[in-house]
């Protein structure tokens, strides 16, 4: 049986036999989710399918997380703006203002490029 350990930048793949010690097979970079050759040769066909299914799950999960964040963005923005007006320290206000201005800059640049 394979276990998948989610680390900050990598996914650690571990083989856990029914009887015996765990065997760390290697790590896969999360930013590209490609099996390196040295790890690929250690896996049988069923394990490769299992790894690919986990890669699909991670990719789908990230896409769903982004859609959920976008859907919640208007409410989050209202809450942050209320906090900005009613309780944020001067440092927090500058932090929020900087994020808003950067966000507007990115949106405007994207819109200009889309119109061109």
Contiguous helical run count: 3
- Number of extended strands: 3
Percentage of residues in helical conformation: 55-70%
Bulk shape:
elongated
Task: Report the span from N to C terminus.
Answer: 53 Å
**Which runs of at least 5 residues are low in confidence (pLDDT < 50)?**
none
Strand content: 15-25%
Question: Order of strands across the widest beta sheet?
Answer: 1-2-3
SSE pattern: EEEHHH
How is the biggest beta sheet arranged? 3 strands, antiparallel
Overall number of domains:
2
Rg from Cα: 22 Å
Describe the structure.
It is a single chain. With 116 residues, the protein is of the alpha+beta class. Helix content is 62%, strand content 16%. The protein has helices at 37-40, 45-86, 90-115; strands at 2-6, 10-15, 23-29. A three-stranded antiparallel sheet has the order 1-2-3, covered by helices on one side. The longest helix has 42 residues, at 45-86.
Keywords, separated by commas or semicolons:
116 residues, single chain, alpha+beta, 2 domains
Give a quick rundown of the structure.
With 116 residues, the chain is an alpha+beta fold. The chain has helices at residues 37-40, 45-86, 90-115; strands at 2-6, 10-15, 23-29.
What are the SSEs and their pairings?
Elements lengths: L1 E5 L3 E6 L7 E7 L7 H4 L4 H42 L3 H26 L1
